[in-house]
Amino acid sequence: MDLSVKLPGLNLKNPVIPASGCAGYGRELAELYDLSLLGGIAIKSATPKERFGTPVPRIAETPMGMLNAIGLQNHGVDYIIEKELPFLEQFDTEVIANVAGASEEDYIEVIRKMNDSKVVKAYELNISCPNVKHGGIGLGTDPQLAANITRMAKEASAKPVYVKLTPNVTNIVEIAKAVENAGADGLVLINTLLGMRIDLKTGKPLLANTTGGLSGPAIKPVAVRMVYQCAKAVNIPIIGVGGISSAEDVLEFLYAGASAVEVGAANFVDPYVCPKIIENLGSVLEKYGNASVKEATGRSLK
Amino acid sequence: MKTDQALILKNEKIAADTFRMILKTDIAEEVQCGQFVQVQVPGFYLRRPISVCMADEETLTLVYKTVGDGTKAMSEMEAGQSINLFGPLGHGFPVEKRSVLLIGGGVGTPPLLLTAKKYIEAGQKVTAVLGYNDKASLMLEEEFRELGASVYAATMDGSYGTQGTVLDAIRENGIEETYVLACGPLPMLKAVSAAYSEGCVSLESRMACGMGACMGCVVKDQNGESMRVCKDGPVFEIGKAVL
Questions:
Q1: Do B213 and A58 touch (CB under 8 A)?
Q2: Is the predicted pLDDT of residue A133 greater than 90, yes or no?
Q3: A18-39: string of b/e by CB count within 10 Å (b at 16+)?
Q4: What residue of B is the nearest CA neighbor of A215?
Q5: CATH superfamily of A5-301
Q6: Apex CA A127: angle with CA A178 and CA A259, to 5°?
Q7: Contact A52 B47 (CB under 8 A)
Q8: Per the CB < 8 Å rule, is B45 touching A53?
Q9: Cα gap B184→B105, rounded to integer Å
């Protein structure tokens, strides 16, 4: 079974990619399995300077999912280039660098610095983090601002630029189209849904940040819907993400119009989930009458 | 470090809201004292990080408190059922060639039992001071004694042992050990860190991945650098983490 997918900048041997923030820079998962099994890996967000992130508690469980408010904690782009990217060189997998910031200039600075990296094959513009003030979400909820940062990123970038959109908007299609028109090479759909839980004993929010991003199977139908709506409206490839934990889930996203997928919270439930999905994907594709990943993409749109 | 579908051999109540689950799993042989496992309770999304109380070649003992719906569901599981574990995880307690004072508070006591065993096997003298809210919460005292540790207890309400905190019990009994390994509630760890300069404390945190990837459970060190409780800890040298 042909699981390969060719996307701008990315030669994926299979369509399965651990999502940004769920696999760090690969070191921990590499203790469990060979990262070369993966189609790619989306590494944790890089910002120009080190960010400590939000106070703890940062994690809360929900029915069929979880909330997180990490706040883009990272050591800053220079450290990542020097200390983290070299580790990933040894693996035969496509590295996608997630780029974040508090202003347009921040994104451009990170992109310019990473342009020389041979390890990074594409950028994923995070204009959708719900846990940081101006942490991109301001840019991601307005079509004009989203288009503007996309255009600036494309001008600065030596690599293809994928834009990761937030679901916390009234009309995601409008933003997807704006980003496409601004030159994006692809879309990543979706980031987390803004959520909240309250501790009944204290009457206070469970997360120190009050709100956090909801992920896990609870958001899968929302993600599938948004991939489907955007796939109908744009002609650039879509990487689907949101609650995927099985090969069947992958197929659902492919049918909705995704060319590849990212797997997030499921890595916390089963750290071996990505290789398991990859192992099962061929037979699941076959079971439902698909000869390849490429053939499955967009089946429900036809 | 691996996942395993472990067979529950026993799951019994041993104190107020406190249960002991004995599991058959080959994760057991890899466990070092102070490490934890991530337990997947059926019906709940995230795993629960629970420290290992005791381990031999093929069985692993978890002692846990029912603090929420997940641990309550775990307490209702029965021998013969299986439960998925991921572990062993984290950096545990060092086993040094010296006598040790183990200080446990409440449900922080369990990982010190395996620690006591390792020190005693290494021929070292072990003194354990265990603190609880009340006599109904008292647990594992006999188990420490059976291993050969000198055991002292404190209860906040005075219903058993010294009335007051673990530090009150240490004073009352004139315990002069200087090397301390502690696990328990944050106020206890702060008090222990203020009173002792040599040794380690084990921290608790809400976690997602449990293996260092998600940054969900960080603490700061004295220089403001972040450390992951799950991967860099849960055991830290006294004074290293800002509590």
A1: no
A2: no
A3: bbbbbbbbbbbbbebeebebbb
A4: B45
A5: Aldolase class I (3.20.20.70)
A6: 70
A7: no
A8: no
A9: 4
Q: Does residue B111 sit within a domain?
A: yes
Q: Please tell me whether residues B79 and B170 are part of one structural domain.
A: no
pTM score, whole prediction = 0.96
pLDDT digits (tens, 9 = 90+) for B37-73: 999 999 999 999 999 999 999 999 999 999 999 999 9
Q: Flag whether residue A44 sits within 8 Å of chain B, measured between CB atoms.
A: yes
Q: Which CATH number is B210's domain given?
A: 2.10.240.10
Q: Which chain A residues in 75-104 lie under 8 Å from chain B, judged by CB atoms?
A: none
For residue B94, tell me if it sits in a domain. no
- Euclidean distance between CA atoms B169 and B174, whole angstroms: 8
Domain-by-domain residue ranges, chain A? 5-301
State the residue for tokens 């508090």: A102
Q: Which of A87, A15, A68 is nearest to A209 (CA)?
A: A68
Beta carbons of B99 and B179 less than 8 angstroms apart: yes
Judge if B21 and B70 occupy the same domain. Answer: yes
Q: How does the average pLDDT of chain B come out, rounded?
A: 97
- Residue B173 sits at the vertex; the CA angle it makes with B168 and B178, to the nearest 5 degrees, is 80
Number of domains in chain B: 3
Q: How far is B83 from chain A (nearest CA, A)?
A: 13
Nearest-CB residue to A56 (from B44, B212, B217): B217
pLDDT of residue A136: 62
Q: What is the mean pLDDT of residues A22-36?
A: 98
Place of tokens 């689907």: A240
DSSP strand pairing (A16-18 vs A65-68): unpaired
Mean pLDDT estimate for chain A:
96
Residue B188 shares a structural domain with residue B209:
no
Residues from chain B that touch A268, judged by Cβ atoms under 8 A, are 46-47, 208-210, 214
pLDDT at res. A282: 98
Instruction: Band the pLDDT of A129: cuts 50, 70, 90.
Output: confident
Query: Going by C-beta distance under 8 Å and a sequence separation of 6 or more, which residues neighbour residue A157?
Result: A111, A115, A123
Average pLDDT value for residue range A260-276: 98
In this complex, is the C-beta atom of A53 within 8 Å of any C-beta atom belonging to chain B? yes
State which residues form the domain around B128.
100-199
Q: Do A24 and B1 touch (CB under 8 A)?
A: no
Residue A46 to chain B, least CA–CA distance (Å): 14
Residue A58: closest C-alpha in chain B: B216
Question: Which secondary-structure segment (H or E) carries B114?
Answer: helix B110-121
pLDDT tens, B71-117?
Answer: 999 999 999 999 999 999 999 999 999 999 999 999 999 999 999 99
- The region, left, alpha or beta by phi > 0 then psi within -120 to 50, assigned to residue B70 is alpha
Q: Cβ of B213 and A29 within 8 Å? A: yes
Domain check: are B156 and B70 in the same one?
Answer: no
